[in-house]
């Protein structure tokens, strides 16, 4: 089974970049120690000092789902050493928590991203629009997974909202109680396919994975009484192998998911507004008072919801702000690097004069 999890192409890539190395895949991270799947099983590994020195940010370190180059295939002679991260085919990222521009990689090399939301008080179409923008930016295929179907409130109205936000994308209705929708998810997870679930806490992500596994491997927690918000059950990211040979990455609940500097994901998530904008009389139309504005026409005739436009503009602004903040950080880091280099050159010249 593990030979199928580590494709031959990844073994070739590892060998070409780091001669004599072996390919593995990150299944779990815990305090700078990684659980890695190899062709021989699983083992613990840590990154090399050389890799630490060459890393310019957290994004350069291994994340769950990453393929990596290793110095060994098992840890019988000690922990393995991770020599480098192999090329990512997709990368689900977000801004790290707090007042920082650091990037946190949620999962890497994901083929299918399930944007999960419950059909009760947790339902928030604006949050779903944000998830869709993140999915577009990641390079993964995505599907909207609507859980708690058995206790759905206002199902028709919510489904119409989701259809507009998903712009023709796949939508799956699911109940972990009745089992409806689980087979539809299972069909998307054939051998070699990696999926990830993102969404708030307690909305059924771990329960879906348990259904796919056929047991209660993951802890689950229901919704709190009163507000419909979930209890945290998954506390870290973990790659899990399914009986089908497919793989899933369970992630902690994420009610807030800050966008990064790539505005293209926002534009793709709101392709309907982008299409309307292309028909405006003026290329720099602000969609406020300009004559011949197709967006304003759509608002007037009801084909575009004003709240959706406001959401689009908010996410655009957020992405631009992050891009600007990251540019400022790069400039500061470059200035500090040049200052350090200048100091080193002065010291070398000073030492030469002493000789």
TrEMBL record:
<keyword id="KW-0699">rRNA-binding</keyword>
<feature type="binding site">
    <location>
        <begin position="199"/>
        <end position="207"/>
    </location>
    <ligand>
        <name>GTP</name>
    </ligand>
</feature>
<dbReference type="GO" id="GO:0042274">
    <property type="term" value="P:ribosomal small subunit biogenesis"/>
</dbReference>
<dbReference type="GO" id="GO:0019843">
    <property type="term" value="F:rRNA binding"/>
</dbReference>
<feature type="binding site">
    <location>
        <begin position="147"/>
        <end position="150"/>
    </location>
    <ligand>
        <name>GTP</name>
    </ligand>
</feature>
<feature type="domain" description="CP-type G">
    <location>
        <begin position="99"/>
        <end position="257"/>
    </location>
</feature>
<keyword id="KW-0694">RNA-binding</keyword>
<dbReference type="GO" id="GO:0005525">
    <property type="term" value="F:GTP binding"/>
</dbReference>
<keyword id="KW-0479">Metal-binding</keyword>
<feature type="domain" description="EngC GTPase">
    <location>
        <begin position="108"/>
        <end position="255"/>
    </location>
</feature>
<feature type="binding site">
    <location>
        <position position="293"/>
    </location>
    <ligand>
        <name>Zn(2+)</name>
    </ligand>
</feature>
<feature type="binding site">
    <location>
        <position position="287"/>
    </location>
    <ligand>
        <name>Zn(2+)</name>
    </ligand>
</feature>
<keyword id="KW-0378">Hydrolase</keyword>
<dbReference type="InterPro" id="IPR010914">
    <property type="entry name" value="RsgA_GTPase_dom"/>
</dbReference>
<dbReference type="Pfam" id="PF03193">
    <property type="entry name" value="RsgA_GTPase"/>
</dbReference>
<feature type="binding site">
    <location>
        <position position="285"/>
    </location>
    <ligand>
        <name>Zn(2+)</name>
    </ligand>
</feature>
<keyword id="KW-0342">GTP-binding</keyword>
<dbReference type="InterPro" id="IPR004881">
    <property type="entry name" value="Ribosome_biogen_GTPase_RsgA"/>
</dbReference>
<dbReference type="GO" id="GO:0046872">
    <property type="term" value="F:metal ion binding"/>
</dbReference>
<keyword id="KW-0690">Ribosome biogenesis</keyword>
<feature type="binding site">
    <location>
        <position position="280"/>
    </location>
    <ligand>
        <name>Zn(2+)</name>
    </ligand>
</feature>
<dbReference type="GO" id="GO:0003924">
    <property type="term" value="F:GTPase activity"/>
</dbReference>
<protein>
    <recommendedName>
        <fullName>Small ribosomal subunit biogenesis GTPase RsgA</fullName>
        <ecNumber>3.6.1.-</ecNumber>
    </recommendedName>
</protein>
<comment type="similarity">
    <text>Belongs to the TRAFAC class YlqF/YawG GTPase family. RsgA subfamily.</text>
</comment>
<keyword id="KW-0547">Nucleotide-binding</keyword>
<keyword id="KW-0963">Cytoplasm</keyword>
<comment type="subunit">
    <text>Monomer. Associates with 30S ribosomal subunit, binds 16S rRNA.</text>
</comment>
<keyword id="KW-0862">Zinc</keyword>
<dbReference type="GO" id="GO:0005737">
    <property type="term" value="C:cytoplasm"/>
</dbReference>
<dbReference type="InterPro" id="IPR030378">
    <property type="entry name" value="G_CP_dom"/>
</dbReference>
<dbReference type="InterPro" id="IPR027417">
    <property type="entry name" value="P-loop_NTPase"/>
</dbReference>
<comment type="function">
    <text>One of several proteins that assist in the late maturation steps of the functional core of the 30S ribosomal subunit. Helps release RbfA from mature subunits. May play a role in the assembly of ribosomal proteins into the subunit. Circularly permuted GTPase that catalyzes slow GTP hydrolysis, GTPase activity is stimulated by the 30S ribosomal subunit.</text>
</comment>
């Amino acid at each position: 089974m593990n030979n199928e999890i580590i494709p031959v192409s990844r073994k070739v890539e590892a060998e070409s970049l780091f001669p004599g190395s072996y390919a593995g895949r990150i299944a779990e991270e815990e305090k700078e120690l990684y659980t890695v799947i190899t062709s021989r099983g699983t083992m613990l590994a840590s990154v090399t000092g050389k890799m630490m020195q060459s890393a310019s940010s957290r994004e350069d370190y291994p994340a769950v789902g990453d393929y990596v180059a290793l110095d060994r295939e098992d840890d019988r002679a000690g922990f393995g050493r991770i020599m480098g991260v192999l090329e990512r085919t997709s990368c689900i990222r977000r801004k790290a928590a707090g007042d920082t521009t650091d990037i946190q990689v949620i999962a890497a090399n994901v083929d299918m991203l399930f944007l999960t939301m419950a059909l009760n008080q947790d339902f928030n179409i604006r949050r779903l629009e944000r998830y869709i923008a993140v999915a577009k930016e990641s390079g993964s295929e995505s599907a909207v997974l609507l859980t708690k179907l058995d206790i759905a409130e206002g199902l028709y109205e919510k489904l119409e909202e989701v259809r507009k936000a998903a712009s023709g994308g796949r939508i799956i209705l699911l109940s972990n109680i009745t089992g409806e929708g689980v087979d539809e998810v299972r069909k998307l997870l054939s051998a070699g396919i990696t999926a990830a679930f993102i969404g708030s806490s307690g909305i059924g992500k771990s329960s879906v994975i348990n259904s796919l596994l056929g047991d209660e491997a993951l802890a689950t927690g229901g919704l709190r009484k009163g507000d419909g918000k979930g209890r945290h059950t998954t506390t870290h990211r973990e790659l899990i192998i399914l009986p089908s040979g497919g793989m899933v990455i369970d992630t902690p609940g994420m009610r807030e998911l800050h966008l990064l500097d790539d505005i293209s994901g926002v534009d793709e998530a709101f392709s309907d507004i982008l299409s309307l904008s292309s028909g405006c009389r003026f290329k720099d139309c602000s969609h406020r008072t300009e004559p011949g504005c197709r967006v304003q026409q759509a608002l007037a005739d009801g084909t575009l919801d004003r709240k959706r436009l406001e959401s689009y503009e908010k996410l655009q602004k957020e992405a631009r702000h992050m891009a600007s903040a990251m540019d400022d950080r790069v400039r500061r880091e470059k200035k500090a690097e040049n200052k350090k280099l200048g100091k080193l050159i002065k010291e070398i010249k000073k030492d030469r004069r002493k000789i």
